[in-house]
């Protein structure tokens, strides 16, 4: 699949001195990389090299079959393109963030940036991970549950749903849908779908998205805008347009010269671009704008006190007294203070599909546990027995199989691989019922 002629012409104009190296690099192999989950420290990648701008990022010498690794399903790591991990460096460089930041990832599926943001927060504050496309939102929800944190709210709403939310977020990440030029190396469909008209349409759509979200940012809060395209109209031009519309200023981020990241003028400051012939990663653009004004501090909302407190057995979560319990469609969810405040502020505008930690449903005093409880970092260690599986057994479980020898157990049991829980089984007599969600099951091989 050849590169589109109009794209080549624009690149030659945009990079007069090194267009041929740029275009040649698009025909080389894309680097393979993963970001490990530091809270589920079990994945081992030998021969890997560190991604310089993200301490949890690793380049791998070749692409493993992630689907056939149980630790991938346990949320121990996330295969993520290395340039996107630059968000880690950016978040760590933001000045004066509150101790419990309230963050939104507006265009979040499948969850690459959201899992990174969850690791950045490491249980502090709250992350709202939102995706407008329904099927993609389900994948986002699955990935967020597997990552294990309880301070995450997952929603499925259009950006316009946030337009009447005022001054709630300290950080809003808009990883916008774009013309995808940065993926031309590894995704040949991106080449066939590209046209100048489509790229122009993307730029307009991005402006609409940015307009919808601006008021939801607190004064003093940060907008982090990124795309995976080289198109100036979708990158710096959109940032300059935003600076004309609203009171904001670009935030400078220090970058090591050896990383091969290019500064791009934005207002009187700069954004950053990853080009395939200079940086070890796919095409990417990122810029940060700070809204004028002072940070408001913690979110306040009295309505949260009216939350229904569901009755649940004790001893499920570490520090369970700190959690507020609520029930939606008979499923009990546990939320700590900050997620609860944010949930209350958004609940009438935004459609939540997951919140905090799903505990499960009470059926005749037996808690039928939710999958997110097995994967949660906050579940009490001895809440249920944990049965260790071999790799073949773990893959059998992940395919929905029931030929598992958990003979020493009756009732609910978490099955684990390398000590990291994968999900629930229930042993009844000499039968084992598999509670791994049908839509998460592996269909490959076996
Ligand atoms: C670049 S992708 C996000 C990737 C994600 N942030 C990650 O790191 O895994 C852009 C997302 O925006 C969503 N999207 C598409 N049209 C949209 C729109 N009009 N408004 C908001 N989001 C949209 C897409 O479904 C897609 O999931």
Provide an overview of this structure.
GO terms for molecular function: RNA binding; RNA methyltransferase activity. Residues 1-292 form the SAM-dependent MTase RsmB/NOP-type domain. With 446 residues, the chain is an alpha+beta fold. The chain folds into two domains: 5-291, 3-Layer(aba) Sandwich (Rossmann fold); 384-446, Nuclear Transport Factor 2, Chain: A. It contains twelve helices and 22 strands. The chain has helices at 5-14, 19-25, 70-73, 86-93, 112-121, 134-147, 188-193, 196-213, 236-245, 337-346, 371-375, 391-398, and strands at residues 32-36, 49-50, 57-60, 77-79, 102-105, 126-130, 152-155, 169-175, 217-227, 248-250, 261-266, 269-274, 284-291, 324-328, 331-335, 352-355, 357-363, 366-369, 386-388, 411-417, 420-428, 431-434. Strands 5, 6, 7, 8, 9, 10, 11, 12, 13 and 16 form a ten-stranded mixed β-sheet that branches. The longest helix has 18 residues, at 196-213. Mean pLDDT is 94; it is low at 302-306. Bound molecules: S-adenosylmethionine (SAM). Residues 84, 107-113, 131-133, 136, 159, 175, 177, 205, 209 line the site of S-adenosylmethionine.
């Amino acid at each position: 699949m050849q590169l589109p002629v109009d794209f080549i012409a624009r690149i030659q104009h945009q990079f007069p001195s090194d267009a041929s190296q740029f275009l040649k690099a698009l025909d080389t192999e894309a680097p393979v990389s993963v970001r490990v989950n530091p809270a589920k420290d079990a994945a081992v990648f030998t021969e890997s090299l560190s991604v310089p701008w993200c301490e949890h990022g690793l380049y791998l010498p070749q692409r493993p079959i992630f689907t056939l690794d149980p630790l991938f399903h346990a949320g121990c790591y996330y295969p993520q393109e290395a340039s996107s991990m630059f968000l880690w460096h950016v978040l760590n460089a933001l000045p004066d963030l509150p101790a419990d930041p309230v963050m939104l990832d507006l265009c979040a599926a499948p969850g690459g940036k959201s899992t990174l943001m969850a690791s950045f927060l490491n249980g502090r504050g709250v992350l709202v991970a939102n995706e407008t496309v329904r099927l993609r939102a389900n994948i986002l929800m699955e990935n967020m549950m597997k990552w294990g944190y309880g301070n995450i709210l997952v929603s499925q709403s259009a950006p316009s749903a946030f337009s009447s939310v005022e001054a709630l977020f300290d950080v809003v990440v808009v990883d916008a849908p774009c013309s995808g030029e940065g993926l031309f190396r590894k995704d040949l469909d991106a080449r066939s779908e590209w046209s100048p008209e489509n790229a122009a349409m993307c730029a307009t759509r991005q402006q609409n998205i940015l307009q919808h979200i601006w008021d939801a940012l607190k004064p003093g809060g940060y907008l982090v805008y990124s795309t995976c395209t080289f198109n100036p109209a979708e990158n710096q031009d959109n940032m300059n347009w935003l600076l004309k519309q609203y009171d904001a200023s670009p935030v400078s981020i220090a970058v090591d010269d050896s990383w091969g990241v290019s500064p791009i003028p934005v207002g009187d400051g700069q954004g950053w671009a990853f080009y395939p012939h200079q940086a070890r990663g796919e095409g990417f653009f990122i810029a940060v704008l700070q809204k004028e004004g002072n940070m408001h501090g913690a979110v306040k909302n009295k309505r949260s006190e009216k939350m229904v407190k569901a009755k649940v057995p004790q001893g499920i979560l570490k520090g369970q007294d700190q959690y507020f319990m609520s029930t939606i469609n008979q499923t009990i969810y546990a939320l700590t203070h900050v997620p609860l405040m944010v949930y209350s502020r958004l609940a009438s505008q935004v459609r939540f599909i997951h919140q905090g930690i799903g505990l499960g449903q009470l059926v005749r005093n037996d808690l039928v546990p939710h999958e997110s409880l097995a994967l949660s970092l906050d579940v009490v260690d001895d809440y249920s027995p944990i049965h260790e599986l071999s790799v073949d057994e773990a893959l059998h479980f992940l395919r929905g199989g029931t030929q598992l020898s958990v003979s020493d157990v009756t009732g609910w049991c978490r099955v684990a691989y390398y000590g990291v829980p994968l999900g629930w089984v229930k042993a009844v007599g000499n039968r084992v019922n598999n509670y791994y969600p049908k839509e998460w099951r592996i269909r490959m091989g076996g």
